[in-house]
User: Which sequence fits this backbone?
């Protein structure tokens, strides 16, 4: 395959807690612990998982809004934040839309000024930046004559999120990271914004990372899905392959929470019980083994790696690894 547009390798973020007695190093919160994936131009990668699994932290690490403990982010083969690719240029190519549409906007700037701010900072003349801002506002469904001079508090949540999308597009990026960008919207507005995102993707040739709790929304927009659990990648694969043939028990449990209109498929008990372990002291071996119905003794001793189970489809589960020692794994690799 060609060089990925965005290549994330070994991304780790540990948040240190207070130091212990006598100045000894304190514990750390393992928020993200070795996340790797490649993003090809034109695709939409959905990232899903329970709250606290590291989805949003991963997005912020990619954007270098927080510095990674270790790991690299490459854009078209160049390391972001290095001599190869300055962070200023990287952020022109990769933009982010946040969940909180109100907190994302400066309350003292009008809608027009918020969208024009980025291009002006990057050297564009004010008049040209204003023209671009007005064109983008019109493109996202906010008529400039009515909305350009308004302030964030004068807009609805859906309108503010459209402003955030216009602002993210103002620098003409190639990648958009959408962190729960529609989760705070009611369903009718959510549908409008999702359709807008799909239209913008085709029109501007964008590549998306779409982070969401809503598995149905992810299935609608994503071409590939990455499942995270306790800071690690549990499974990744093409959307339909993963939704119809998941191989990690955690992914299967997540999909089991989807609602169905078929009365014969009603859920009588929760597909997954208990809370995720403490990220300060995660369990040894497979991090999911404390909640997994298929766990065996080997699961508490061996940390599974992502094993290929199909074209572009991989799962970090000992049942998917030949010769792993799990009773449901094949004896040896082919």
Assistant:
């Amino acid at each position: 395959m060609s060089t990925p547009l965005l290549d994330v390798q070994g991304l780790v973020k540990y948040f240190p807690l207070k130091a212990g007695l006598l100045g000894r190093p304190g514990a750390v919160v393992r928020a993200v612990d070795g996340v790797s994936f490649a993003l090809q131009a034109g695709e939409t990668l959905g990232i899903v998982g329970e709250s606290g699994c590291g989805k949003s932290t991963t997005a912020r690490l990619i954007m270098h809004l927080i510095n990674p403990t270790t790991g690299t982010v490459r854009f078209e083969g160049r390391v972001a934040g290095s001599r190869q690719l300055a962070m200023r240029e990287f952020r022109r190519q990769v933009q982010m839309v946040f969940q909180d549409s109100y907190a994302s906007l400066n309350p003292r700037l009008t809608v027009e000024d918020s969208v024009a701010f980025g291009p002006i900072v990057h050297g564009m003349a004010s008049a040209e930046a204003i023209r671009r801002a007005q064109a983008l506002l019109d493109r996202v469904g906010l008529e400039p004559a009515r909305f350009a001079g308004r302030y964030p508090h004068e807009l609805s949540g859906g309108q503010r999120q459209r402003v955030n999308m216009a602002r993210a597009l103002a620098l003409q990026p190639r990648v958009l990271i959408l962190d729960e960008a529609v989760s705070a919207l009611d369903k009718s507005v959510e549908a409008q914004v999702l359709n807008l995102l799909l239209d913008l993707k085709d029109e501007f040739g964008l590549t998306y990372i779409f982070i969401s709790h809503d598995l149905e929304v992810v299935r609608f927009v994503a071409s590939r899905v990455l499942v995270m659990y306790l800071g690690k990648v549990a499974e990744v694969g093409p959307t339909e392959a993963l939704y119809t043939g998941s191989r990690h028990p955690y992914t299967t449990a997540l999909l089991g929470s989807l609602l169905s209109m078929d009365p014969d498929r009603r859920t009588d008990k929760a597909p997954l019980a208990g809370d995720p372990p403490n990220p300060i002291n995660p369990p040894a071996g497979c991090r999911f083994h404390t909640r997994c119905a298929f766990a065996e003794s080997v699961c508490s001793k061996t940390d599974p790696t992502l094993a290929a189970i199909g074209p572009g489809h991989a799962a970090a589960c000992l049942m998917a690894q030949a010769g792993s020692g799990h009773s449901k794994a094949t004896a040896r690799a082919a």
Q: What stands out?
A: The longest strand covers residues 28-39. The chain is about 30% helix and 20% strand. The chain has one domain: 6-320.
